[in-house]
Amino acid sequence: MKTADVQKLYNEYILPTYTQSPVCLVRGKGSRVWDIQGKEYLDFFPGWAVSGLGHCHPEVMHALRDQARKMIHIPNNYFNVKQALLAK
Question: From residue 13, how far is each of 9, 80, 81 by CA, in Å?
Answer without folding.
Answer: 6, 13, 12
